[in-house]
Design brief:
Blueprint (H helix, E strand, L loop, with lengths): L1 E6 L4 E8 L3 E9 L11 H23 L8 E7 L3 H18 L3 E5 H12 L7 E6 L4 E8 L2 E7 L5 H11 L7 H8 L24 H12 L3 H33 L4 E5 L6 H13 L3 E3 L3 H4 L3 H15 L16
Helix pairs in contact: 1-2, 3-10, 4-6, 4-7, 5-7, 6-7, 7-8
């Protein structure tokens, strides 16, 4: 089945064609650069940028897949969570196409899309697995019993991990969003240079917290002069990253052991983090467990994961309703 996916939940305009939830024929992603001068995503600016680019991006997705709209058998679009204005652009566009061409339509939960990114790329992944979803908006540990059957084990009770990466990157004078750049810079630094707090690490359970860590870095930087910040920028980046990643790793390993789950996945933008991938691979390996993560372009928001999630949803439940407020399928948020 050929599925067209549309994703516009934040600052990526993306359209993709995926066959049977497994084979990517195209996955066009345009990251809006207009927000960097504001140091964060401006929702109204994002909505207008999506409006300008959604049709060319959709055309490119069809042409790279070498298909026509008449070949599309299912349309899937992100319906939330995300920024309301940006979401409406992609969702309305997708529903319009579906209605005009009488193609079944499935609204997709953004988080379920991130979960599907691993199913798309790793056929050997067990349908029962544990996933750590870490992005700019979410930090959650979810036990996936099978696609569509989830148990939320724990999540952040303040900032998301990606948000902390972006805020610390900004404090260090890196670009926006700064997570990937901070990751690169940290390779040159000493992760033990400053011992930043590892919030909720010792607490039982699977809660996360990132606002304290971000504040600790801000307070630390305030005590330094510009010369010292410049000299130790990589050390501070590495030390922050070490603290942020330590808690993610600890709680994920704990959940895998306590719940006796052998297959573990990382998803969301922060799943691209090199330190997180390395440490978690090592720790889970010691426990005879397997870690899977998507290739970098499937970690951050993209339409291929939405097309895949739409396909799996459709196999389970058939098409969604073509109404403005299609009811969310997933009770994760
Ligand atoms: O999943 P995503 O594209 O958007 C949301 O759903 O939020 O995730 C974006 C987040 C940003 O906070 C970005 O800084 C972060 O993922 N990110 C990273 C890395 N690459 C992207 N954070 C840490 N290390 C990376 N390599
Ligand atoms: Zn996302």
């Amino acid at each position: 089945m050929l599925v067209l996916g549309i994703e516009t939940s934040c600052d990526e305009t993306s359209a993709a064609v995926v066959r049977d939830g497994r084979e990517i024929l195209s996955n066009v992603i345009l990251s809006q650069t207009v927000h960097s001068k504001y140091g964060g995503v401006v929702p109204e600016v994002a909505s207008r940028a999506h409006l300008k680019t959604i049709i060319p991006i959709y055309n490119q997705a069809l042409s790279e897949a070498k298909i026509a709209l008449n070949d599309v058998e299912l349309i899937a679009a992100t319906m939330g969570p995300g920024l309301v204005g940006p979401l409406l652009v992609g969702l309305t566009f997708a529903k319009g196409l579906a209605y005009a061409k009488n193609i079944p339509f499935v609204p997709v939960n953004h988080i379920e899309g991130h979960i599907a990114a691993n199913l798309l790329e790793h056929p050997q992944l067990g349908s029962h697995h544990l996933t750590l979803i870490v992005s700019g908006g979410h930090t959650m540990l979810v036990e996936v019993k099978q696609f569509g059957d989830y148990e939320l084990l724990g999540q952040t009770h303040d900032d998301a991990a990606g948000e902390a990466f972006d805020k610390v990157a900004k404090l260090l004078g890196l670009g926006y969003p700064g997570g990937a750049e901070l990751d690169r810079l940290a390779h040159e630094g000493d992760p033990n240079y400053v011992k930043f707090p590892r919030a909720v690490l010792k607490e039982p359970g699977y809660r996360f917290s990132y606002s304290g860590l971000k504040t600790a870095v801000a307070v630390y930087l305030r005590k330094l002069n510009q010369k010292d910040i410049k000299k130790h920028k990589a050390d501070i980046a590495a030390s922050f990253q070490e603290a942020a990643v330590a808690v993610l790793v600890e709680k994920t390993v704990r959940a895998a052991v306590e719940r006796n789950i052998t297959d573990i996945t990382l998803s969301g933008g922060v799943a691209a983090n090199s330190r997180l991938r390395k440490l978690l691979t090592e720790r889970l390996g010691e426990q005879n467990r397997r870690l899977f993560y998507p290739s970098p372009e499937l970690c951050t928001d993209n339409a291929a994961m939405i097309a895949a999630a739409g396909y799996y949803r459709y196999q389970k439940e058939g098409p969604g309703e073509l109404i403005a407020n299609a009811v969310p399928y997933l009770k994760l948020v």
